[in-house]
Write a structure and sequence with these properties.
alpha+beta; about 220 residues; hypothetical protein PF0899 fold
Length: about 220
């Protein structure tokens, strides 16, 4: 499997997980929407009945104003709910990445592909790699073999100090003038807008549109 294919596989996995989490929160959103509508409709019904007893004409005018205000309130609540659900899904993604990082058999090939991808992007023969403390412990003794297997035509030194990240790596030139941030946090930041669009589509699109989004992820 090519370097690009492995990187794309992780990105598809992230998008697929975002879709799964979005579908979970969609059901919660539907229940919240029904509750909001039921409560508001009941309040409007009771208020209408009381005001009709006082004066039908006045009640009708008041009712129309209240419906308009209620609609604005619902729109505000829905918008807040939309934003909250998207952030909930986004906030859950780092834990999914951390789970991948704990699975060494699955994670180390991804790390090797990140290394090869970054080295190819920098195109320099002498580079420095920074990884987190867990990966430093895993790879310190076998780094030369790991690095040569991933990038045979490049000398990559493992930085002795751990980098603060949940996984992935940062590759840079020895003078630190060129760097590629392939940490999980760096990749999530670059994909943030794309992920948010996928999540919003899954939460608020029609069933047909949601299926289209799912197909696009694979």
């Amino acid at each position: 499997m090519s370097s690009l294919a492995n990187v794309e596989e992780l990105e598809r996995a992230l998008l697929a997980r975002a879709q799964a989490l979005a579908e979970e929160y969609l059901e919660r959103a539907r229940r919240s929407r029904d509750r909001i509508l039921d409560e508001e409709n009941e309040r409007l019904r009771l208020r209408e009945e009381r005001e009709v007893l006082v004066a039908k004409a006045l009640a009708e005018r008041t009712y129309r104003r209240q419906v308009q205000r209620a609609e604005l309130t619902r729109q505000e609540e829905f918008e807040h709910l939309r934003w909250t659900l998207i952030r909930n899904v986004m906030n859950a993604l780092p834990e999914q990445l951390a789970h991948i990082a704990r699975d060494e058999e699955r994670y180390l090939p991804i790390l090797a592909q990140f290394l090869a991808h970054a080295a190819h992007a920098i195109k320099h023969e002498d580079l420095v790699c920074e990884i987190n403390a867990t990966d430093l412990h895993r790879l310190h003794a076998r780094w030369d073999t790991f690095a040569r297997t991933a990038v045979p035509d490049c000398h990559i030194t493992l930085h002795h100090e751990p980098r603060h990240c949940s996984g992935g790596l940062l590759l840079r030139t020895t003078d630190d003038r060129i760097r590629v941030d392939n940490t999980f946090e760096g990749r999530l930041a670059r994909m943030e807008e794309q992920l948010e669009r996928v999540i919003q589509d899954c939460l608020f699109a029609t069933a047909g549109s949601t299926a289209g989004v799912a197909r696009s992820l694979f």
